[in-house]
Amino acid sequence: MNLAISTDFTLDAVFESMASLPVFPKIVHEALKVLDDPKKKISDVSEIIKYDQGLVGNILKLTNSALFGLTQQVSDLDTALALLGQRRIREVLITSAALPYLSRTLSGYQMSPQDLWLHSVGCAIISEAVSEKVAPNLSSELYTAAILHDIGKIVLDIYLGPRLIEVLEHARIKEHDFSMAEWEIIGTDHAIAGSTILKNWDFPPDIYRAVRNHHDPDLYIQEKLSTMLALSNLIAVQLGLGVGADGFRYRINPEILKKLELSTENYLELIDEAVKKIDAAQDVFKLILE
Ligand SMILES: [Fe+2]
Ligand SMILES: [Fe+2]
């Protein structure tokens, strides 16, 4: 992925530059639409994506990972889609398409490509445990929001990389979380940047709003999907999944558990489930090393 590096570090330049990010593959949006259309068949999904070799390669790697739990290894797209089922196809498509964006070094955040991938996929996997416990009907939207929730870090890192060192130092001295320090030093945060990107990429409003809200307690408490995303992210951070410099200062806000009607006991069960899912997904985390 090549991006023109700007020497203009003003916020306007940063937001304008988002339009020059390579767009999320349109064929994935098309495939997802076909997937949701009861009049269409799985073979129609395959017809749309089969010519994108990079995407198909990633789909097969993911399909064969332990995460998706198939009992046989598959080597062709049609068999993979036939075996996965609708919900899993959606997750595999989004994750495969996100992989090229998420396997980057973010120097300003002190994150390696493995860190960003581990954190994003980790959050998406945890989100499955959250939606199973809280609202199974939101699982698809939550998974998509979770895998892409920190995509704004990519743009801020490219355009504001040197200033993120100041953010880091500020967060350390003031003992503020990284998102708050982003506001204090650069006047925006990666959640706003991420939601702007997802809007440009034609994701639905509930998804880019959840990304916008994921660090803002006043906002994420308003909508269930946002609250669920905030919780998934906080659990990923607390489990130490690829957090780089942006970790260990975020705490679970008791309002989240109240809003999601989770007792302490429910919450501990949820953590248990999340850890099991993460353990089962180790081969997915290694995907970008191959
Ligand atoms: Fe974040
Ligand atoms: Fe995050």
CATH-defined superfamily of one domain: Hypothetical protein af1432
Bound compounds:
fe (ii) ion
In one word, what is the shape? globular
CATH topology of one domain: Hypothetical protein af1432
- Gap between N and C termini, in Å? 18 Å
Helix vs. strand class:
mainly alpha
SSE string: HHHHHHHHHHHHHHHHH
CATH class of one domain: Mainly Alpha
Give the helix proportion (percent range).
55-70%
Number of strands: 0
**Number of helical runs?**
17
Radius of gyration: 18 Å
Strand content of the residues, in percent? Answer: under 5%
Could you report the average pLDDT, rounded to the nearest whole number?
88
The residue ranges in which pLDDT falls below 50 over 5 or more consecutive positions are: 2-7
Query: What summary fits the major beta sheet?
Result: none
Please identify, by name, the CATH architecture of one domain. Answer: Orthogonal Bundle
Polypeptide structure, described:
This protein has 290 residues and is mainly α. It has a domain at 11-22 and 102-289: Hypothetical protein af1432 (Orthogonal Bundle). Helices cover 66% and strands 0% of the residues. The chain has helices at residues 11-17, 26-36, 42-49, 53-63, 77-84, 86-102, 113-134, 139-148, 152-174, 178-186, 190-200, 205-213, 217-220, 224-238, 254-259, 264-280, 282-285. It is globular, with a radius of gyration of 18 Å. The model is unreliable at 2-7 (pLDDT under 50). The chain binds fe (ii) ion (2 copies). One fe (ii) ion is lined by residues 119, 123, 149-150, 233.
